[in-house]
Amino acid sequence: MTSIESYLTNGYLNTKLDLIPGMENFRLKDLPDSIRTTNPNSFMVEFSFEVADNIHRASAIVLNTSDELESGVFSALSTMLPFVYRIGPFLSFLKSKSTEPLGIFSEGVCAGVPMLCWPFFADQPTSCRYIWSEWGIGIEIDTNVKREEVEKLVNELMMMVRKGKGMRLKAMELKNKAEEDTRPGGRSYINLDRVINEVLLKIK
Which domains does the chain show, CATH number per domain? Predict the structure, then answer.
């Protein structure tokens, strides 16, 4: 194993970060694998820098999220960018998609279902971190997990122990708040109306 590959197993990925506003105490392993690549010339790294360089030119930043899901990140972005709107989660949109990431989100957070997370690539590590640590509606499976441990974790989620019951209650709370936000008069509904009137109708 090379020195570059060894960081995957030597505990380095558990290093906590304090560099990302709104995501304090996140670990390296919680970031998308495209960001923690050892190749500085990778497409996703260059693309991320390009987006960051041009984001100030945007008329508005629209996030498909809600207060309960990512309040820390939203607060941090609001201090850097003038026009940031939370108008989600779009339940009907998510449920209409067949892709796995959107399906998991829809069936999990928006349906009040606790989750067992075993992240491998893309944004799965970040989603996993929010699910088990920030929202408290799931459990993270370790990379080197054994079959007996998986069975134990599944039993927890099936309410065979108190922890599983607590997760199910938290998941239902998030589901109810998400539905409340997207109803007429809800916070996300109002923010969508603001985007239309304050941004889209003013663009010539």
Answer: 51-202 (3.40.50)
